[in-house]
Amino acid sequence: MALIATAAPAVRPVGRSARLHRWARRWPLLPLVLAVLLLAVPDDGAGAGAVLGVPAPDLLSGVAVLVCAGRLLFLRRRPLTVAAALVLGLPAVGLTLATVTAADPAAALPGLARYLQIFVLVPAAVLLLVRDAQGFRIVAGSLVVLAAVQGATGVHQYVTGSGASYMGEDIRAVGTFGPSDVMGMATVVGYGLLAAVAYALRTPAGTPAWLRPWAPVTAALLVVPLTLSFSRGAWIATAAGALAVIALTGARQAVRALAVLAAAGTVLVGGFGVGSEMISQRLTSITQVTSAPDQSVNDRYAMWAAAADMWRERPATGVGLKGFPTHRDAHASIGLSAGSDTAGAGQAFRKQPLLSPHNMYLLVLSEQGLVGFVALVGSWAALLVGGVRRLVRARARGSAAVDCGLAAVGLMTWQTVDFLYADIGGPSTVLTGIVLGLAAWWALADPERTTTA
To answer: Which of 447, 361, 359, 364 is nearest to 405 (CA)?
Structure first.
């Protein structure tokens, strides 16, 4: 007599078991979330909450990498796909070559460790630790929380005149990063604003009704501290990221979103007069950088020219990681000043040395040569193009995780545009690795992981 086996229906965990199941799935994200949130701690000059000289956010990013490695080794989690390993591992080739061929390889080793952390290890850890769309939202949501805290601090600095010095007044919003890292708050707020815009345009299913209005409200409010940062590069990068997100939602919704953004900008900046005169001057200066540049623009042009000259001298492998400061004076024009003046936000006046070209593409080209440039920039291009392609397909199929795709593409667009005016450095640098990891998760993770709610 044949025995007929019947499959028992899957039992979904309930009560305490359900909570333990959710915790088991989410706890690996804790180091990443803490790495983001601890950037709200005021910087004392050694990094936010430094431990043995290592800033806590960087330390926690290392913990995230170790957790990821542990899960791969002991839980037999599937490693990176071939495509993901190629895209995320390719920069290591150029970095290693630039270190080996540097005039002083030992001096280049700290640069190798930093680049591997930000552009290889942390993105790979994020890709592997974020298991589904909900995990993506948790990490991206921490960026929004950090942006709200830093943005509120920046607005308070402007209102009370306790910010960094700008045009003779201590009004520049820099958050807790201080005047030595004026791009820190602008970077954080730009990230948070774009994540909030993405969720406002495609609110995830199942979001509580009381929570739904907060995404557009938060995005609108973050325009204020971003504006008061007086950072032209951050303005341009955020505008590019927002336009990319809006354009990829569809024509009809894009028109409505642009109308809302225009109205919000008019009310918050024009209606309330939030720094309107200085903002107008700053906006005008964007189009005057060639006709009537100020000293900061002259310095930037001089450093860009120096970086290009270094590359022409060693086109294949560059001058080596951390080599730009050493070779700067031999290649810069006499118009380059000794440094930029910083003051305010609780710090005394000091001269900030100019140790990079403030253009990530030129920094990579000068220090890593054409080999490193193709490897690193090619990796970023693959993430952006892959993210856009998957987003278009997900939107056509009605995927529940389109909000994640919008956030990933918006953040990656911000990063690639901002690198035209800035490079890595400062406490907020660890966020670059996390953002690249979120973009990698959307562009390179298994399709089923990026199409579920």
So the answer is: 447
